[in-house]
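Show me any protein, fold above all:
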Amino acid sequence: MAKTTLNSKRLLVVHAHPDDESLFTGHLIAERVAAGAEVMVLTLTRGERGRVKLDEIKSLEGKLESMGYFRANELLNAIQEFGPNVKHKFAGTRAYLDSGMRVNLFGRPARPRDVDEMSLTSAGSQVIADDILRELKDFKPDAVVTYNSRGGYGHPDHALAHRATASALRQYARSRGGRAPQFWVIAEPGERADVSVGNAETAKVKKAALEAHASQVSIHGDSYSLVAGKETRFDEPERFRRANPNPLVMLSPLVTVFWAIPLGILMGLAGTLMHQVKATNPEHTPIGLIVALISVGALSLALRLLRSSRGALYLTSITFGVTVFTLAQKQVGGEVLIPANDLGQIWSYGSIALCAAIILFPQIRPASWRKSASGHS
């Protein structure tokens, strides 16, 4: 059996943040450039939520735009260290924000609870896949490298980068009759690897590139560190594994269908059944209508906040609107579930208008409601 090699002549490297290209693929980029290959580095965010190592620029933390500009400049300086055969682009028609990361109760990296709607993970893997697919068509690589399916150490942006890249490659293959670039992932310690890349010469280039990322990486002679007490030698090889894009990654957006559509139907049915109920007091307060509208508003707002996007809310709201419209018609037995009285009109039009208002509201950031919130503009 022939030995697996990563000898690409046109290499596309997909990373989530500035400095990832040098940390995880610095040897590979340097080795490919030395072999005369062309390399394109596609970076998905500008690392706006990075934590800096330098005291003199600590004030940038939490200032997303300023931090993004600073780290983008570091990235451009690092790319120059690899030579003229390395090109760089930021992904997207909009500037995706670094999602940030938290450590959950099990001590593992996880998506933050309050995610900015402009963050990478809020955009969703298929949206990012479209951006990567565009680059595949423009650059026409023969190999693509990104993180493994777990996102390396587990950063949510890294995991999304893998899913989006895998999805883009499958779409690209279909458009070319099944022909697609080789797909390689970064092998973490303890994982099987097909190739190891790195020597004394590429270590010099990797060191120069990492020195350009001084805000994120501490340099110590022959080694570097991201966290205190854990140093890595510049000449430590990088390991990669040949992979196949998982066909299930393209199905992940469809999972929303299985709960968003039933939720919309349930909202429409429940509200319709209770909207005509009135209290027994003399004023005949329309308690059922009030509860129904509050329920619709609360569920819609919860979807917008918890999902940090409008996608699931779109699907739920459309299903809800269709359900209400259907129930407003005369049923088979002749009964009318939503009569043409004031309560029926308010329920039919008010509930749909409430969903539309929550969808169309420009930005909803719960963290900004707290005085202690940081990292939001």
Remarks:
- Residues 366-377 have pLDDT under 50 and may be disordered.
- The two ends are 56 Å apart (CA to CA).
- The CA atoms of residues 260 and 315 lie 6 Å apart.
